[in-house]
Amino acid sequence: MASKAPAKAAAKKASAARPTTRARSGKAKATWTIESVAAELLACEDERREREPFTDDWPELDLDTGYQIQDLNLAKRLERGEQLIGVKLGLTSRAKQQRMGVFSPFVAWLTDAMILPAGDPVPQGRLIHPRIEPEIVFVMGDGLAGPGVSCAQAMSAVESVYGGFEIIDSRYRNFRFKAGDVSADNASSGFFVTGPVGVHPSTIDLALEGVLVEVDGQIVDSATGAAVQGHPGEALALAANDLARRGHSIEPGWIVLTGGMTDAVFAPPGSSVAVHFTNLGSCFVNGGAEA
């Protein structure tokens, strides 16, 4: 069952929000709080509206404050009927870190509203500027609670491994953000697709599992699972340990997206994107029509 523990914690933390009224320049800026940033991010998502990062006005918005905003918006998602089904990691590969200029991984939430059925086009009418990145996906057999979880311990809790991709979508203009901004924005969450081939983790060398990214018939990027923290299991352990610091744990049955193996590629209307894994099959999506 979906856990509501993050939602309860978020309500308490939101009351401790402190506003800021001045940027580093000393000029008066918009006043932001945990509550107001959370509301603005959900509004941007619902209205397909991009904006400048909050750290332009609120430089004190750090990673941990972003997590409080993320948890508060999870509570709001659950209140409107979404179900918590897992977690996703962001910026676990060097390629993604270099591309975005943020050099630490982080964790965010997955709900059932983020599932894109295989074969469906990119939902352009619900996204601002979608990009696609290939991912190693875990389905958990057992729960996993930090701190101190190792890669081996993390992998022992995995029931099955899939290839897949995430359609990320930042609420920030030109994907410009700092760590606090992007953690608040649920790590640029959009939609995700799980591929057709699931295997037990004991049957595959995930560090060597390769992927090719194809856009409009051309291979544009490639990587192996080692791009994700050296091994996707390290990303899973990182998630468990980071969530423990926030008072949460990974639950049995949850889906875990371990982070983009390559840089993300744009998915405009009319495009065609495929990710081809060595042993985990292929996933395809077309860019759909103009919104």
Write up this protein.
The structure is a single chain. With 291 residues, the chain is of the alpha+beta class. It is globular and about 55 Å long. The strands form 3 sheets. Strands 3, 4, 5, 6, 7, 10 and 11 form a 7-stranded mixed sheet that branches. A 4-stranded antiparallel sheet has the order 9-8-12-13, with no helix packed on it. It has a two-stranded antiparallel sheet with strand order 1-2. It has helices spanning 5-14, 34-47, 63-79, 94-100, 151-156, 179-184, 232-245, and strands spanning 20-22, 28-32, 84-90, 106-111, 131-140, 158-168, 191-199, 210-215, 218-224, 255-260, 265-266, 272-277, 282-286. The two termini are 35 Å apart. It has 7 helices and 13 strands. Helix content is 25%, strand content 29%. A hairpin with a 5-residue loop joins strand 1 and strand 2.
Mean pLDDT: 89
The largest sheet is: 7 strands, mixed
Indicate the percent of residues in helices: 25-40%
Class computed from helices, strands and strand pairing:
alpha+beta
Low-pLDDT segments: 11-28
Spell out the blueprint of helices and strands.
Elements lengths: L4 H10 L5 E3 L5 E5 L1 H14 L15 H17 L4 E7 L3 H7 L5 E6 L19 E10 L10 H6 L1 E11 L10 H6 L6 E9 L10 E6 L2 E7 L7 H14 L9 E6 L4 E2 L5 E6 L4 E5 L5
Parallel strand pairs: 3-10
Antiparallel strand pairs: 1-2, 3-4, 5-6, 5-10, 5-11, 6-7, 8-9, 8-12, 12-13
